[in-house]
C-alpha cells in the first residue's frame, strides 16, 4: 500500500560555470587552453575580473590589481574581457536550464540554483542533475560543476569542492560530516574580516563552529553569527527564487511645465540613470536591458529599448541612456514626461566593468556607494545631474539638502 502522506525531501542543485570568463575566451580561441589567463583591465592600473586555474597556482585571484597579478604570474596572457560575449553565453546556458527544469534561480551571470524536490518520484534527482550538466556542456561547450543536497548552502559549498568540471552529491543527513573538515572560508557570507575574527578565536574549521553554542557565535558576530552557525550546521531554509527576466526597476518624472530644454532633460536623465544604477548595486543586481520613455505635450508616447551586457555601472548605463535619448527625441516638441527602466535583472557581484575600469574606478564606486548607504542615495551625485533638482512635480532629492558633487566625468 502506498503512503499517500509521503513528503519529499528538499533537493537543491547548485550549478556554477567553471572560470566562466576564461572558459568563454578558450571556446573562442582554443590556443588559450592550458595556459595561465588573466582577464580584466589590461593596464597596470586595471583589476583582475577572472583568472584560470593555471594562474591561481601562482596566488592570483579575482579583484586583485592587474599589476600585482602580473608580478605573481609573469607568463600569464592578459585579455581585456568582452561583456557582450559573456552575456551571450550566460543567456545560452539560462535557456538550456529553463527548457529542462521546473524551477530555477539565476543567482549571478554564471551561477544557478535548481529545485528538483519531488523529481525522484519520476526521474531520480542525481540522474536528472547529471544529465542537465552534460547537456549544458554539450550544447554550450562550457565546463560546469554542480553540488546537490537538501539546501542551497550545502549545495553551493559542494559545488566548490567538486570543481573543476565535476559533480558532488551530499546525501540527506550527511551535511554536518561533509562540512566539518572544511575551512570556515567556505561558508557563504564569511569574508576576509569575519574570517580574521574567527581565526582570532581559534576557529578555522567549520566543525569547530558546529561544536560551539549558537549564542556564542551571536555574541561574537551579532545577528550574522547566528546565520553563520546555521550554515555551518547545514541549516538553510531559503527557497529557490524562480528566475524572471521581466523583473525591473524604473523611475519617471512628469514636469510642472512641458519643456524643450535639452540640457535639463539630459541632466535629469543622468540623475535617473545614476540613481537606478546605485539601486542595482545596493541590491547586488545587474541589468541587461534599458528602456527609455518619452511623452510629448500632446501625450504621444515613445519608447526605446536596448540590450546591453550585464552591468550595474552608471557610467556605462548613462552613456547608453544619452545615446538613446539623442535618437528618440527627434520631434523637437515640448516634453511632458521622461522615464528610465532597467529590466532582465539578475543577482550578481560583478557590479562594474572590471574589463575596462581601473583599480581607482573600482575603489571610487565602493567609496561613493559607502557614502550613499550612510547618508542617503542622493548624498553624492554627478555634477552633470545637478540641474535635475529643479525639475518635476516631485523633488527627485526628496527634500534632502543639496548633495555633494562627485568630481567625475558625465
What's the structural blueprint in terms of helices and strands?
Elements (H helix, E strand, L loop, with lengths): L11 E6 L2 H9 L8 E4 L7 E4 L1 H4 L9 H7 L4 E3 L3 H16 L4 E6 L2 E5 L9 H16 L3 E6 L2 H11 L4 E3 L5 H5 L12 H9 L5 H6 L2 H8 L1 H10 L15 E12 L2 H21 L2 E12 L4 E11 L2 H15 L6 E9 L2 E2 L11 H17 L4 E3 L21 E3 L4
Parallel strand pairs: 2-4, 7-8, 14-15
Antiparallel strand pairs: 1-6, 1-7, 2-3, 5-6, 9-12, 10-11, 10-12, 10-13
What do these coordinates show?
The protein is an alpha+beta fold and 410 residues long. It folds into three domains: 1-172, Alpha-Beta Plaits (2-Layer Sandwich), CATH 3.30.70.270; 175-234, 5' to 3' exonuclease, C-terminal subdomain (DNA polymerase, domain 1), CATH 1.10.150.20; 248-406, Dna Ligase, domain 1 (2-Layer Sandwich). Helices cover 38% and strands 22% of the residues. The chain is built from 14 helices and 15 strands. It has helices spanning 20-28, 53-56, 66-72, 83-98, 125-140, 152-162, 175-179, 192-200, 206-211, 214-221, 223-232, 262-282, 314-328, 359-375, and strands at residues 12-17, 37-40, 48-51, 77-79, 103-108, 111-115, 144-149, 167-169, 248-259, 285-296, 301-311, 335-343, 346-347, 380-382, 404-406. It has a five-stranded mixed sheet. Strands 9, 10, 11, 12 and 13 form a five-stranded antiparallel sheet that branches. A three-stranded mixed sheet has the order 3-2-4. β10 and β11 form a beta hairpin. The radius of gyration is 24 Å and the shape is globular. It starts with 11 loop residues before the first strand and ends with a strand.
Amino acid at each position: 500500500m502506498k503512503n499517500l502522506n509521503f513528503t519529499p525531501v528538499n533537493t537543491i542543485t547548485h550549478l556554477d560555470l567553471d572560470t566562466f570568463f576564461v572558459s568563454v575566451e578558450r571556446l573562442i580561441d582554443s590556443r588559450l587552453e592550458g595556459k595561465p589567463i588573466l582577464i580584466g583591465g589590461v593596464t597596470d592600473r586595471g583589476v583582475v575580473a577572472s583568472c584560470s586555474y593555471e594562474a591561481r597556482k601562482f596566488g592570483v585571484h579575482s579583484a586583485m590589481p592587474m599589476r600585482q597579478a602580473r608580478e605573481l604570474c609573469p607568463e600569464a596572457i592578459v585579455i581585456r574581457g568582452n561583456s557582450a560575449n559573456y552575456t551571450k553565453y550566460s543567456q545560452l546556458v539560462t535557456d538550456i536550464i529553463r527548457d529542462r527544469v521546473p524551477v530555477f534561480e539565476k543567482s549571478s551571470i554564471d551561477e544557478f540554483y535548481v529545485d528538483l524536490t519531488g523529481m525522484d518520484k519520476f526521474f531520480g534527482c542525481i540522474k536528472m542533475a547529471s544529465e542537465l550538466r552534460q547537456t549544458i556542456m554539450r550544447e554550450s561547450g562550457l565546463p560546469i560543476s554542480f553540488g546537490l543536497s537538501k539546501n542551497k548552502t550545502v549545495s553551493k559549498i559542494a559545488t566548490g569542492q567538486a570543481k573543476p568540471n565535476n559533480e558532488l552529491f551530499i546525501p540527506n543527513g550527511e551535511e554536518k560530516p561533509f562540512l566539518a573538515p572544511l575551512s570556515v572560508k567556505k561558508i557563504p557570507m564569511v569574508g576576509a574580516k569575519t574570517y580574521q575574527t574567527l581565526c582570532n578565536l581559534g576557529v578555522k574549521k567549520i566543525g569547530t563552529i558546529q561544536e560551539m553554542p549558537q549564542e556564542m557565535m551571536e555574541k561574537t558576530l551579532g545577528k550574522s553569527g547566528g546565520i553563520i552557525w546555521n550554515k555551518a550546521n547545514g541549516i538553510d531554509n531559503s527557497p529557490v527564487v524562480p528566475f524572471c527576466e521581466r523583473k525591473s526597476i524604473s523611475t519617471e518624472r512628469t514636469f510642472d511645465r512641458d519643456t524643450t530644454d535639452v540640457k535639463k532633460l539630459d541632466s535629469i536623465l543622468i540623475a535617473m540613470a545614476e540613481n537606478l544604477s546605485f539601486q542595482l548595486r545596493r541590491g547586488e543586481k545587474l541589468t541587461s536591458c534599458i528602456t527609455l520613455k518619452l511623452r510629448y505635450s500632446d501625450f504621444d508616447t515613445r519608447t526605446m529599448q536596448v540590450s546591453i551586457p550585464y552591468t550595474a555601472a552608471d557610467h556605462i548605463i548613462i552613456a547608453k541612456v544619452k545615446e538613446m535619448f539623442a535618437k528618440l527625441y527627434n520631434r523637437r516638441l515640448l516634453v511632458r514626461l521622461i522615464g528610465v527602466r532597467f529590466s532582465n535583472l539578475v543577482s550578481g557581484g560583478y557590479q562594474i566593468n572590471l574589463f575596462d575600469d581601473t583599480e581607482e574606478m573600482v575603489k571610487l564606486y565602493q567609496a561613493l556607494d559607502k557614502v550613499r548607504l550612510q547618508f542617503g542615495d542622493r548624498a553624492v551625485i554627478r555634477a552633470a545631474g545637478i540641474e535635475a533638482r529643479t525639475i518635476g512635480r516631485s523633488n527627485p532629492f526628496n527634500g534632502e539638502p543639496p548633495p555633494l558633487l562627485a568630481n567625475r566625468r558625465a
